[in-house]
Amino acid sequence: MTVPDPARRRFLAQSAALAAGLAAREVSAGGPAPGAPEEVRPELEPGLTETSASPHALVRSVGLGDVRWTEGFWADRFTTCCESMVPNLETVMGGTEPSQFYHNLKIAAGEAEGRHRGPAWNDGDFYKWLEAASAVFAVTNDAALDRRIDEVIRVIARAQRADGYLHTPVLIRNRAGDRGAEPFQDRLNFETYNLGHLITAACVHHRATGKRSLLDAAIKAAEFLAEAARTRSLQLARNAVCPSHYMAVVELYRTTRDPKHLALARTLFDLRDLVTDGSDDNQDRIPFRKQRTAAGHAVRANYLYAGAADLVAETGDRTLLDPLHAIWEDLVSRKLSITGACGALYDGASPDGVKDQKSITRVHQAYGRAYQLPQSAAHNETCAAVGSVLWNWRMLTLTGEARFAELMELTLLNAVLAGISVDGTRFFYVNTLRQLDTMPAEFRWSRTREPFISCFCCPPNVVRTVAEVGSYAYGRSPGAVWVHLYGGSVLDTELAPGSKLRLRQTTDYPWDGRIALAVERTPAHPWTLRLRIPGWSVSASLRLNGKPWPAPLEPGTYAEIHRTWSMGDVVELTLPMRPRLMQAHPLVEEARQQVAVQRGPLVYCLESNDLPQGVRVSDVVLPRDFALESRVESGRLGDVTVLEGRAEARVEPAWSNALYREVPSTDPRPIDLRLIPYYTWGNRGRSEMTVWMPFGG
Ligand SMILES: [Zn+2]
To answer: Helix 259-271 vs helix 213-231: angle between axes, to the nearest 10 degrees?
Structure first.
């Protein structure tokens, strides 16, 4: 936990006073709904999603600076985040080539000359960097970073219009004398997306620093949205594209405790139903409360679902919660990549295959129909994976159910981390499951890692997520600490005001399944430690101070240890890390007779760099008696565990232009196979790669 500076201490005291006032109002209004969990008192250090006073949140965030990675996987990623990812993005987004982000804000503020350049959503993507930098500061207290953040915020505040509107494409045209440029003229201007990310960044910055500078801009932005909701509601509803603003405005309510912001979040959400000519491209073809399947543009969908879950945490609205559960079931049982990636299609149609063809519209970057999960042609935008993490985190917050934490972890380790290179400077917009040298089509997005992407939404989205993973690792509820993610770390938190607790987690997870948790500080009263037992760990074991834990451990739940703890108590959890051959449901036609390999929460892949000369990725077949050994390795991919075994290569004669031919006779040749974690592929130059491999030769 960071030591609060005086400004931060003042803020914490103010927050406590505000929250106490709110709690008093709730009591006078009859208190939380029946069955709602007991309140955590609000003087606690505020978390990434500040749910400590949310009446329908079962598991709450720990404080933003409460978790410090110490060693191993996430510590390495966090170090790369501080030393490479955040500074690299600062350079890329601070310049004028190949696009403009911060510079657009400087022009809008009157501090630079020029015209707006880049997509309309560049503002929002720049605010994601600001959020990442603030989250890093919450842990590192890096004074130089703090000063650079302050300067950026000064420019943002100058660029903002007096009524709270802040959207540089319009403001720069206004500044150049163009009175015709106004808010909400084009639904693809992404104004609500930009304002949403501004507000979210402000909440994180405020919690990290105690400063109000960006929060004041966020409050003004919310006032602009509130005025727009009153005076041009349909326009606002139609323009709510890629809706980051539902999450944002709820978070602003949690930060300020001003009920008008919660009312605004509800209004903004309900306004969606005014749209009568919408499409699944923005999930407004049918009202949200009637939706039961994951459909449409996957990033926008996941942001919408996350925003709905935030509203449920504050309101308990079951008409929002029921669709969320149904959509989640549809996602995990029919539409999810094995890596956790979402949105398998470059382009889809909606409603797909209906009789009335005139009612079908094109949907881009989309969820496909059930079981439609292409491999070479998979889209799987990195932002969709980030959106899934945001959504699953909120579902976990609402329910305390391990399945949401498990999908969050799978997505973080595979789909999200794949989006950024090991050195933290090159990016994927799309995340294919198979890359062969001869591809059947020209794809819109690069399939090699790039330092810049014309749509730069994913890079800062990954970086803010890596900066904030510590906040997803633990949770707290009255009388309990939850361990959602494993990694070498120290948790320094409070269960209740003054009830301090410190846990040290020592592990080399996800490479190794042995996890030790040492109690270094504990309140005198008993409390419960909840440890997530992953669904894949069928023979996990637990020891307390060296003695086997008597209760069975059920995969896919949280194991509970309730006791009066002492300093020096040690809990040891061992999760089996055997490689597992995975198959897909038979209706996933593109994966028929193929297997993928998982070890613990990591998905593995075959990359051509690891194949013998003359053997291509598409030649490799895994025999039915296939076995894998794990080996620890350090090199260009970082410290990783690779998997090795014997497979077969069936090198086929070259294809002519024929589409079909009689099967040629080829002699299988034994080869040494080496599989690497999927998230590390594409870090050794141009390559072929596949996650799914033919099985059963
Ligand atoms: Zn993106």
So the answer is: 50
CA–CA–CA angle 692, 583, 469 (5° rounding): 75
Q: What confidence score (pLDDT) does residue 44 get?
A: 84
| CA neighbours closer than 13 Å in the CB half-sphere of residue 260 | 9
pLDDT at 23: 37
* 178 CB-near residues (< 8 Å, 6+ apart): none
The whole-angstrom separation of Cα 202 and Cα 182 is 25
The string of pLDDT tens digits covering residues 370-386 is: 999 999 999 999 999 99
Asked if residue 489 lies in contact with residue 473, where contact means CB atoms within 8 angstroms, the answer is: yes
| Torsion angle of the four alpha carbons 203, 207, 208, 211, in this order, in degrees rounded to the nearest 10 | 80
CA 460–ligand 1 middle distance (angstroms): 9
pLDDT tens-digit map of 657-696: 899 999 998 889 999 999 999 999 999 999 999 999 999 8
**Half-sphere exposure of residue 523, counting CA atoms within 13 Å on the CB side?**
19
**In one letter, which amino acid is 151?**
E
Query: How far apart are the CA of 596 and the centre of ligand 1, in A?
Result: 26
Distance 26 CA to ligand 1 centre (A): 39
CA 332 – CA 337 distance, rounded (Å): 9
Q: Which of 35-44, 86-95, 150-159, 160-169 has the lowest mean pLDDT?
A: 35-44
Instruction: State in Å: Cα 279 to ligand 1 middle.
Output: 20
Q: Is 527 helix (H, G, I), strand (E, B) or coil?
A: strand
573: CA distance to ligand 1 center in Å? 36
